[in-house]
């Protein structure tokens, strides 16, 4: 089908390990004989600890207080309090056992990390390492320990539950024996939970049992600083890891004055200050952030040696930033201020990626393509993919950082709407999310999410097409370096340096693909014989054979060994002021290749990398604020994904409507995160419940927006153009165009693994909406008088045109069927409808008794002398705005026009009656009127007879002596109607009703004649009838009329078509139609 891509990647629930983690745990490193056995063993041990630590952090982050669910016993059940204590203890003991497990694990992890650092910090250099992979494992484990400590400090429910646990333990343990061990564990756990930064303090104590870790700490600091300054990390999680652990490393490395001086000789303090100032807020968890300045100040009270670092301790925390600097940080963190650049980057990348893909398709379809041209195209594809990953990483990182900034700067004075006047209390979460994003910021965030999802989807769709090109390009990069550049270095720079030459030879041995080399020479001869310039360049054909994680790991290690010579204290960083005597050109080549190596694994892990970079599920999680607000769950208005959906609906921005489903992808991401990372089913259930609610609201509001838009278009179309041109502000009656085409084509919307036919749901609700609108208009007419029939006809005309407009895109029910259904006029033998019943009811009870005729204007107006029959009317219910004319301005315009017909009944009303009733119900009204006249005449006969009896038997000729006044006086004296005055009034009123009914039918006759004439004049030319010279109608064609000619031509075309299965039936129908 033609369904557009308006959603992000479909999330697959999987937890496999990817290539970046070495699926075989670096067991193949031993084959390269680089003496990295200890290093590999340590990496695997640290990676296992990291995985366990992430599970511990997930457990702490999702921890919810059990105390809130404890029942309160009434006074009548106080005797069961002991049982309640026992049950409470058993429930809390399970949770406390998990906390004890975290306590034991962090002690073990700190001990192993400290031992690992000490092993590789020995000056005698007994083992090779640590490698760059080892650095990252150390930093990630340190980051996990920091996050655990931060969570333990932030979660208030943990000490609350522990205090209850301790209280219940005191109550239930009185009957137990040998509880000393349990009390000791309880005391240890209490100290662990109540001491801030207990995990970091324990890590510091483990590290400095022997003073040998300063070197490795300084190396890690230099590695972090260089990686941040050179933008070495391709993925944003790596950058955030570096930012989080750097303050902790600085605190640990300045354990003494001597070591702090040594550190600042290697890393100038200004470099650290710049990093901390540029990122004052760092994301830690979805709704938790870290501040380096605040962390340094707090840790200074626990690490006395660090308290002397005045320049670091004077950094302002987020709430202490001066107003002038605050504006600069706002410009840096808020996505709104970068949207111009982001749009340009998105558009430019989309064009270049599509161009690169077209070149790849051309290359695939061509046979015998030139090798150089093929390499250029595949190299360009590789560069474009790397750029795409960098863009996605930068954009997703910006969203993380903006959220962290918003959490650190809550809204101080939330706006109070009319619905919140009674309750002016707000959740803290509302202050950081709901009221902390302006409309422009929501739009920018939604636009950026759309960019991230669309670029990720575009790259993911071509994964099979580009995979071979990526593998070949990586293979070519590695082989070009190890076969050509290293060959040149071996023959020039390192020819007389045997130790360094050995490292270069090792690099070639472990990664060179000589099978692809067409001019392979003996490696030994490269160092023994000088060759001409033409012979030095190796020729090899790239193959789709990518290096393994172990090969990349070893190459990075050998480059580090080559540059640093194994000296951890080498000043200037890894590629800084090299003391090994390597020329600047060669050093630059080594540095470039070293950083490319770190990208290779992410490029090879194409699908997993895209999944990481497009994962925005963190925008839903709010565990910390949920706990601090003491509520079970926040209302959906506080949910950021729904806020973005609601913003699209309420703003009706034409540029965002097609992205209305993009925020629903956040639920997919968060559900994936809840199941595979946090591993908490209850979180998934909460996400699923919110998705059900939000999707129902989305469909409902989307239907209302679509219905309102097309109804406004219909009302604007039917509005008299002369009226709009005469208005000074006529532009407000024109509707701003919106596009719903993409939404109408959505038959497969993926939400939480379910496929939903959105088009079908919109169609169902739209049918219901039309029926509700018709019912509302009929009910509104039933509460008014007969003069409202013009307004009813106008609103139904608008509704019918709306139905026609939407029916071009959706398979709606027939409008006439819906009208008949709501008028309860579906039966074949039913000739009465709600409208006809209401019209006759109004004529009988209000119109005929209370309206009088103005013959000059041919109008009936309400009598000013009061109603003969008072009709009790109740006020009609106020409908939703889209039940009228769509927009408010159009509704007011049409109400103004309808108001012109409110005070009389005339020809316009009769046209409306004829159009609404049609030929089916109109005879019923006429029959009812005739019966009414007959009944009035029958009832009036005895009254007239009674009046005749009051007259004298004979009246002679009156004398004219008294004049006209005298004659009138004599007649009044003779007549004795005073006793019959009521009968006289009733007779006169009956006569008025009969006259009004007859005149009403005469108006109906005028209207019907005019309608028949119009219809005849429209159909006459097709029937071959034209006016003659004598004014009479005559036939213009002797044989066939235009209509029969058209019908014959259409029949011939259909019958002659090869697709026509039964042409004879069409010919028979054509003959029958011509005869008719």
TrEMBL record:
Signal peptide: none annotated. GO terms for cellular component: cytoplasm. GO terms for molecular function: small GTPase binding. Coiled coil: none annotated. GO terms for biological process: regulation of actin filament polymerization. Residues 41-248 form the CYRIA/CYRIB Rac1 binding domain. This is CYRIA/CYRIB Rac1 binding domain-containing protein. It comes from Aegilops tauschii subsp. strangulata (Goatgrass).
